[in-house]
């Protein structure tokens, strides 16, 4: 009995369910259910764990029957009947407590019976939704889906009914659902929804725009920000970026912190997407955004800064030519990094600084320091490994590719890097592909220098690089192959 489906059902019953069931049974059960109700009261005594030895079948039989007879088949029949009664009770209770569910079932019954008043009943139901503030978003969504299906059936004449009733009801429900969804996204869980979608407006934009078409959108400050963000996303124009940035700087004090963080990330992502078109301009814009975010304490969570933000600030600061400010920032905010990755991240960023300054020996010293520091951060480990490859290549190039030992070291490092990232299950497929493509093209690059640097093969390599859209550090590879073309002209 301990493993029976009946006891599994008992375990989901609340204390209020156990109290309400006898009244339900008294009202709806039949005379032949008397034994089932008796079994209910017997089992109820052992709530909530239902682990007592007195729930063995033999003991239950002695209790229910004549005290001596062990009638297992009869007990099995009674147990099944009680299980059915409890299942019916749960359905009944849900219907009584959720009027919308009851009305949905009524609509489905009317549909199945092809009732002539079905469309009108549906319209009335939808119009009553606005007065049922206790309904959850999921309940509205379920009703929204059901109604659209039923409306479709009327339009395709699968069931009879006046489609005009459905059209009115559908317009009301469609608008109401969109308003609820907008409230859910922007007021209750905006930062989570947006962050889970890589800060894109995949959820927010269509909802806001559809509601705007109905002319019911409240022109509050947050909505104004999101409309400006949508405009920037859709146009991809610098003018719209500047308009949103100006609004952000001027009205920042009136924004909730989560919305301010989201708008900041959208603006910064715009800069990142346009870095290739004008590195200095958009690195400077991103740098100014980061300065503002640091001043307003948008980047600290529980007095900690994420390693990716720390490294990104350094990168745009260096690209924007703000070396003095950036080096000061690195030292000042190093303590804000997690102790588990602090030293590794700091050394890696410093190695990158000297790499940009073409001080490759110093960069190599710092990257070796980063490599020796313990870290569990996968992005940091990958940055260290890929930066080390480029630093050693630059050293090799500076020596005019004469040191064969460096070539062998590079091949070994690439092989180790590929083996490492292939074992990492948390890397997204497109990012993994970009790393693997970089490794493959890097190997081809160093082999061109050692084994065959004919103009034909160099041109073939450049064509492959140009055509490949998903490759990490593509700009650096492009720069190296162009230098090789100059060194080995046709």
Question: Could you describe the 3D structure shown?
Answer:
Helices cover 72% and strands 1% of the residues. It is built from 24 helices and 2 strands. The N and C termini lie far apart (87 Å). Helix 8 (137-155) runs antiparallel to helix 9. A hairpin with a 2-residue loop joins strand 1 (300-301) and strand 2 (304-305). It is elongated, with a radius of gyration of 34 Å. The protein has helices at residues 5-10, 15-28, 34-44, 57-64, 72-97, 99-112, 118-127, 137-155, 163-188, 190-196, 204-213, 221-235, 238-251, 257-273, 279-295, 307-319, 323-333, 342-356, 360-372, 378-398, 404-422, 429-450, 455-467, 474-487, and strands at 300-301, 304-305. Residues 129-135, 157-162, 175-182, 184-204 and 210-218 have low confidence and may be disordered. Among the domains are: 5-97, no CATH class; 100-188, no CATH class; 373-490, no CATH class. The chain has a two-stranded antiparallel sheet with strand order 1-2. It is mostly helical and 490 residues long.
Largest sheet: 2 strands, antiparallel
What is the residue-averaged pLDDT? 78
What portion of residues is helical?
A: over 70%
How are the strands of the largest sheet arranged? 1-2
Broad shape: elongated
Rg from C-alpha positions? Answer: 34 Å
Write the element-wise H/E pattern from the N-terminal end onward: HHHHHHHHHHHHHHHEEHHHHHHHHH
Q: Beta fraction of the residues?
A: under 5%
What's the total count of β strands?
Answer: 2
| Class computed from helices, strands and strand pairing | mainly alpha
Question: Can you count the helices?
Answer: 24
Catalogue the unreliable spans: 129-135, 157-162, 175-182, 184-204, 210-218
What separation lies between the terminal Cα atoms? 87 Å
């Amino acid at each position: 009995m301990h493993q029976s489906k009946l006891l599994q059902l008992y375990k989901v019953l609340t204390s209020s369910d156990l109290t309400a069931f006898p009244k339900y049974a008294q009202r709806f059960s039949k005379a032949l259910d008397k034994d089932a109700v008796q079994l209910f009261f017997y089992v109820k005594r052992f709530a909530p764990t239902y682990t007592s030895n007195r729930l063995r079948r033999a003991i239950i039989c002695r209790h229910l029957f004549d005290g001596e007879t062990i009638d297992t088949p009869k007990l099995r029949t009674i147990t099944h009947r009680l299980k059915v009664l409890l299942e019916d009770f749960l359905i009944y209770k849900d219907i009584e407590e959720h009027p919308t569910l009851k009305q949905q079932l009524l609509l489905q019954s009317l549909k199945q019976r092809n009732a002539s008043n079905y469309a009108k009943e549906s319209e009335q139901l939808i119009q009553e939704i606005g007065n049922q503030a206790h309904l959850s978003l999921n309940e509205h969504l379920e009703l929204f889906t059901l109604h659209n299906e039923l409306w479709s059936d009327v339009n395709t004449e699968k069931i009879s009914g006046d489609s005009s009733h459905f059209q009115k009801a559908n317009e009301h429900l469609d608008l109401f659902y969109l308003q609820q969804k907008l409230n859910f996204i922007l007021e209750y869980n905006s930062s989570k929804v947006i962050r889970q979608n890589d800060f894109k407006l995949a959820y927010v934009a269509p909802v806001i725009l559809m509601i705007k078409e109905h002319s019911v959108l409240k022109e509050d400050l947050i909505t104004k920000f999101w409309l400006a963000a949508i405009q920037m996303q859709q146009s991809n124009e610098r003018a719209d970026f500047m308009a949103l940035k100006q609004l952000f700087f001027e009205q920042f004090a009136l924004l909730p912190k989560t919305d301010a963080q989201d708008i900041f990330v959208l603006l910064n992502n715009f800069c990142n997407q346009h870095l290739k078109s004008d590195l200095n301009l958009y690195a400077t814009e991103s740098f100014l955004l980061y300065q503002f975010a640091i001043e307003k304490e948008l980047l600290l969570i529980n007095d900690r800064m994420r390693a990716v933000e720390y490294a990104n600030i350094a990168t745009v600061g260096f690209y924007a030519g703000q070396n003095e400010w950036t080096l000061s920032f690195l030292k000042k905010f190093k303590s804000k990094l997690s102790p588990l990755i602090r030293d590794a991240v700091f050394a890696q960023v410093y190695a990158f600084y000297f790499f940009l300054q073409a001080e490759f020996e110093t960069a190599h010293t710092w990257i070796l320091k980063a490599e020796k520091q313990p870290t569990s951060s996968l992005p940091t480990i990958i940055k260290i490994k890929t930066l080390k490859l480029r630093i050693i290549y630059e050293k090799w190039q500076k020596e005019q590719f004469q040191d064969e030992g460096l070539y062998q070291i590079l091949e070994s490092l690439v092989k180790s890097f590929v083996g490492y990232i292939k074992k990492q299950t948390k890397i997204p497929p497109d990012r993994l592909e970009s790393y693997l493509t970089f490794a493959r093209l890097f190997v081809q690059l160093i082999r061109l220098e050692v084994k065959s640097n004919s103009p034909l093969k160099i041109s073939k390599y450049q064509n492959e690089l140009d055509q490949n859209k998903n490759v990490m550090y593509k700009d650096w590879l492009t720069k190296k192959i162009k230098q090789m073309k100059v060194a080995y002209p046709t």
